[in-house]
Amino acid sequence: MGLWVTVPGLLLLYFLTQILGVPAFLAGLTLLLPKLLDVVVHPLLGSLSDRQARRSGHRRGMLYWGLLLAVAWVALFTVPGGLTGTGAALWVGGCYVAGNLLFACFQVPYLTTPSDLRIDYHERTRVFTFRMVFLMLGLLGAGVAAPALVAAGGSAAYARMALLLAGVLVVSALLGLVGVRRLTERSGIRLPDDHRHSVLADVRAAWRDREFRALLLSYLCTNTTTHLFLAGVPFYARYVLHDKSFTALMMGAFLVPATLAAPIWLRVSRRIGKQRGLLLCQLAFLAGSLTLPVGGVAGPAVTAAVVVVMGAAFAGLQLLAFSMLPDAVAAAEARGAARAGAYTGVWTATEATGTAVGPYLYAAVLASAGFVSTTGDAVVAQSGTAHAALLLGFTVLPAGLMAVAWLFQRRYRLDPVAA
């Protein structure tokens, strides 16, 4: 999951605009449209997962499709020779659609598992802490290795990177399958109710849940912000710090603290509650975004320090939000509606939307300012307007989005320890 989430979010926009010569606006659409299909696909898969769980007593059947993700992954970065511009955008977009569908087949039942387990409020956070640590290791490995592997530039470097990392996708998916089976067998699961619901009815039920809706909208804005940040890192490194090799260093500074901070946020949530911890993380990420504009003047060391704080906050943003999802499901079950798969399908659809909208917003900012695309990673002079938009889109825009996320999160009242 860490590999698929990180590398396309980090490199695809740069790959399209700087290697394949796709105009920034078209590149943004290439990333946005495949993800918008997930808005339909994920709730459907969530409802199908509920039906499978009722029928077989587990959700693992859909997980096996995730093993094929490696094929779409390699194709995504292996663009046929001679394809540039619109043709390249169509190739990448088609591979992205296939990859997102296969990823969803794994992601939806996988993330539903903690909601199925017969565990309590703090145990859900503990389960997600283990998940978060390994996810962050995946994010860290991918976020550092992938930029380093493509540092030479050119489309061949991206194809080699994809081929080298494809094995990681397969092995980690197999480990996930084994882990889910063992965890559900040991803890026991709560099966969805026997009443059959249409996908639309499931979506409506999830949306009518006030607490889930507040959490969902907050996470939409949060995920949009963090993926805008990922998409902007290569541009910030190249045009603000003036060294594209800083992409890997920034990702390391972001993800190493994120990996180390996950257990800390578990302890924080036990003291002050998940809600207060999540609000604190959102404010920390917002403050960090507003500090990054000084990076070009203050230098890489100051930038790294700010990114370290943002990385630690990122761990809490992920861990606490995801551990509150099964709390919302448990509350719905207490009211007589057990639809864990449906809730998770809506959640992952929202996550996919944020994953797409973040890079799209950044691409739209670049396009509006006249950012010039190129092929083969060639150096092209950018206008002062493009430079300003590149920086503001990476700093002020994410801060504004995170402020909206904070306001939505304030409406959540389910946490028993929250004020």
TrEMBL record:
Keywords: Membrane, Transmembrane, Transmembrane helix
Source lineage: Bacteria, Bacillati, Actinomycetota, Actinomycetes, Mycobacteriales
Pfam families documented for this protein: MFS_2 (PF13347)
One GO CC term, this protein: plasma membrane
Gene3D superfamilies: MFS general substrate transporter like domains
Protein name as annotated: MFS transporter
An MF annotation (GO) of this entry: symporter activity
GO BP term (any one): carbohydrate transport
Transmembrane segments: 12-33, 62-83, 89-111, 132-152, 158-180, 214-236, 248-266, 278-298, 304-325, 386-408
Species this chain originates from: Nocardia stercoris
InterPro entries listed in its UniProt record: MFS_2 (IPR039672), MFS_trans_sf (IPR036259)
